[in-house]
Task: inverse folding
C-alpha cells in the first residue's frame, strides 16, 4: 500500500469518525444530483431530434430507456413535452444541490462547535501537571487558527470525494451511451492524473512544514506580547526579532511554494480539458462511425467528467495544503484527553476538616519537589506557609487543592482521601488569590462576579478596598483590558480579593496576595482576611515574617522538606527554630 493510499484511508477514518453516516448522505446527494444532471443532458438529444422531426433511440445507447420512460409517463414526444421534463429534472437537481449545500453548512458549523467543546472540556479535565508542560501560545494557535483550518480541510476532503463520485458517474453514463468511445477518455486523462499527483505529493509535504511553522511562529508572538514590557524597556526586542525574522522568511517561502502548486493546477486545468476534447473529436472524425448526436452527447458528458476531475484535483490540492492541521488538532486533543485526571465518587457539600497530609511526597520527573510532609490544618485557622524560593510552597498548595496528585502518601479532607473526592464538588468551595492577579479582559463587575449579572455586594467595597472604582468614569462597568493592564497592580489584586469574598468559601488560599498594595490598603485587606477566619480556613504563602506571626499556624519549608510546623509563639521559643532566626533578622522577635 502506498503512502498516498494510507493517507486517504487515514483521513477517511477520521472523517467517518466525525461525520459518520452523514458523510454518506452528502455523497448520496451528490450522486443523485449528478444522475439528474446526466438525465437532463440526455434529454437534449430527443429535444434536438424532435425539432428535426424524428427520434432515434439508437443515438442514446443504453440511455434509450429514457424514451420508454416518457411513454410510460404518457408524456408526448414533442418539443414542449421533452422541454417540460428537462425543466423538471433540472429543478429537482437544483433542490438536491440546495439540500446538499445546506446539510454541508450545518455539518461544518456542528463540527467546529464539537471540536471547540472537546478542547474546552479536555482542558477542564486534564491533569494540571500535564498542562504545565504545554506551550500556551502554541495551544492557543492550534485550537484557534489551526482548528478552523482543520475543519475546512475536513470538508474539502468531503467535497473532493463527492466530486470524484461525480467524475465516475459521468464516465459511467457516457459509457452507457458509447462504451468504446468513452474508454478513450481514460487515455487522455492519464497524463493529467500523473501531473496532478506529483503536485499533490509536493503540496502535502509543504502543508506539514507550513502548519508546524505557523504554530511555532504563533508561540513566539505570544511570548513577545506577554513579555513586551521587559523587551521594550531593556532594548532586548531585537534579540527576539532575529528569530521572528527567520520564522517569517521560512513561512514566506513555504507559502509561496504551496501557491505555485495551486497556480500550476489552475493554469493546467483548461488546456488539459481542451486537449482531451480535441483528441476525442480527432478520433471521431478519423475512426468512429457512431452517429454525430451520439458522439456530441458523449463529449458533453466527458466534458462534465473532465471539469469535475479538475475540480477534484483543485479541492484535493486545497485539502492537502490544510490536511496537516487535522492531524495537529486531533493529536493535541488526544494528548489532552489521554491525560485526563481521575476523580473519586465521593461528593461533598462544603469542605470536611481537618485537612491532613500524611507522609506526602511529590516528584516532577526525576526531581523530588516535596518529601514526607506531614501536618494537619484545623477548620477556621490561618496557616502561614513560609520558606525561601524553590522550597516547595506552591507545590504544597497545588497538592492541597488537588491540582497535583502526590506520588506517595495520602492527603485527606476529614475522613476521606482526597483522591476519592469528586473534585467538581470540592473546588467551588476553594478561593485562590495568586501572586500574579488573575484578571480577565472584561469589566470590573464581570471580573468580580465571574460573568454573573448579580449586583456586587455593597459590603465588598469597604472590605476589599474597592473605593478606587468610584473614581473611574464607568465605575464597575470599566473595561480593565488584557490581563487588567489598564489598572495598577494593587487594583488588580483588590479585584481578585473581592471576587473571592463574593463566594461561599470554606478555604481561601493567598499567594503573596498583598505584595502590590500600599501600606494603608494592605492593612485594610489584612484585617479583612483575618476576619474571614470566622467562615473559612486560610492558607497564606508569604515571605513577610510579620504576616506569618499573625497566623495561627506556620509551616516552614526548605528544599522540599517541612522543617517545622506549629503555632508561631511556640516556634519562636525554640532557639534552633528557622522562624525565630528569620524573625531576629528582621527585628520581629
Result:
Amino acid at each position: 500500500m502506498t503512502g498516498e493510499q494510507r493517507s486517504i484511508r487515514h483521513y477517511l477514518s477520521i472523517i467517518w469518525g466525525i461525520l459518520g453516516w452523514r458523510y454518506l448522505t452528502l455523497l448520496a446527494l451528490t450522486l443523485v444530483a449528478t444522475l439528474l444532471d446526466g438525465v437532463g443532458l440526455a434529454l437534449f438529444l430527443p429535444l434536438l431530434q424532435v425539432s428535426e422531426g424524428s427520434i432515434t433511440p439508437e443515438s442514446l445507447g443504453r440511455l434509450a430507456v429514457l424514451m420508454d420512460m416518457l411513454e410510460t409517463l404518457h408524456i408526448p414526444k414533442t418539443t414542449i413535452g421533452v422541454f417540460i421534463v428537462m425543466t423538471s429534472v433540472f429543478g429537482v437537481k437544483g433542490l438536491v444541490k440546495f439540500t446538499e449545500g445546506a446539510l454541508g453548512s450545518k455539518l461544518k458549523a456542528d463540527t467546529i462547535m464539537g471540536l471547540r467543546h472537546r478542547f474546552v472540556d479536555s482542558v477542564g479535565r486534564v491533569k494540571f501537571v500535564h498542562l504545565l508542560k504545554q506551550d500556551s501560545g502554541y495551544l492557543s494557535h492550534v485550537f484557534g487558527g489551526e482548528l478552523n483550518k482543520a475543519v475546512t480541510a475536513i470538508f474539502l476532503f468531503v467535497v473532493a470525494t463527492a466530486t470524484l463520485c461525480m467524475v465516475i458517474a459521468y464516465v459511467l453514463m457516457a459509457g452507457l451511451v458509447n462504451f468504446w468511445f468513452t474508454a478513450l477518455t481514460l487515455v487522455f486523462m492519464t497524463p493529467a492524473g500523473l501531473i496532478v499527483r506529483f503536485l499533490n505529493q509536493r503540496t502535502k509535504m509543504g502543508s506539514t512544514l507550513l502548519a508546524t511553522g505557523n504554530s511555532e511562529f504563533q508561540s513566539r508572538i505570544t511570548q513577545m506580547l506577554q513579555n513586551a514590557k521587559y523587551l521594550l524597556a531593556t532594548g532586548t526586542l531585537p534579540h527576539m526579532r532575529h528569530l521572528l525574522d527567520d520564522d517569517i522568511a521560512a513561512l514566506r517561502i513555504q507559502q509561496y511554494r504551496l501557491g505555485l502548486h495551486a497556480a500550476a493546477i489552475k493554469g493546467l486545468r483548461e488546456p488539459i480539458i481542451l486537449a482531451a476534447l480535441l483528441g476525442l473529436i480527432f478520433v471521431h472524425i478519423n475512426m468512429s462511425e457512431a452517429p454525430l448526436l451520439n458522439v456530441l452527447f458523449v463529449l458533453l458528458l466527458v466534458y462534465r467528467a473532465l471539469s469535475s476531475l479538475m475540480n477534484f484535483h483543485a479541492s484535493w490540492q486545497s485539502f492537502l495544503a490544510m490536511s496537516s492541521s487535522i492531524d495537529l488538532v486531533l493529536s493535541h486533543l488526544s494528548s489532552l484527553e489521554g491525560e485526563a485526571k481521575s476523580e473519586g465518587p465521593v461528593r461533598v457539600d462544603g469542605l470536611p476538616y481537618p485537612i491532613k497530609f500524611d507522609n506526602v511526597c511529590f516528584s516532577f520527573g526525576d526531581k523530588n519537589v516535596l518529601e514526607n510532609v506531614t501536618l494537619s490544618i484545623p477548620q477556621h485557622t490561618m496557616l502561614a506557609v513560609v520558606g525561601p524560593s524553590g522550597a516547595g510552597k506552591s507545590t504544597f498548595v497545588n497538592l492541597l487543592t488537588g491540582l497535583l496528585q502526590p506520588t506517595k502518601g495520602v492527603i485527606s479532607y476529614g475522613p476521606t482521601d482526597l483522591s476519592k473526592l469528586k473534585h467538581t464538588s470540592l473546588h467551588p468551595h476553594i478561593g485562590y488569590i495568586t501572586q500574579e492577579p488573575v484578571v480577565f479582559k472584561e469589566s470590573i463587575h464581570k471580573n468580580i462576579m465571574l460573568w454573573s449579572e448579580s449586583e456586587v455586594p455593597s459590603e465588598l467595597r469597604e472590605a476589599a478596598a474597592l473605593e478606587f472604582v468610584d473614581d473611574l468614569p464607568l465605575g464597575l462597568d470599566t473595561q480593565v483590558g488584557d490581563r487588567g493592564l489598564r489598572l495598577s497592580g494593587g487594583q488588580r489584586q483588590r479585584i481578585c480579593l473581592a471576587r473571592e469574598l463574593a463566594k461561599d468559601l470554606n478555604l481561601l488560599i493567598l499567594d503573596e496576595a498583598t505584595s502590590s498594595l500600599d501600606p494603608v490598603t494592605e492593612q485594610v485587606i489584612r484585617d479583612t482576611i483575618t476576619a474571614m477566619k470566622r467562615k473559612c480556613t486560610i492558607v497564606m504563602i508569604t515571605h513577610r515574617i510579620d504576616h506569618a506571626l499573625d497566623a495561627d499556624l506556620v509551616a516552614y519549608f526548605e528544599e522540599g522538606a517541612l522543617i517545622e510546623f506549629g503555632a508561631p509563639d511556640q516556634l519562636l521559643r525554640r532557639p534552633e527554630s528557622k522562624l525565630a532566626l528569620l524573625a531576629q533578622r528582621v527585628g520581629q522577635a
User: Anything to note?
Assistant: The mean pLDDT is 80. The chain has two domains: 3-338, 355-585.
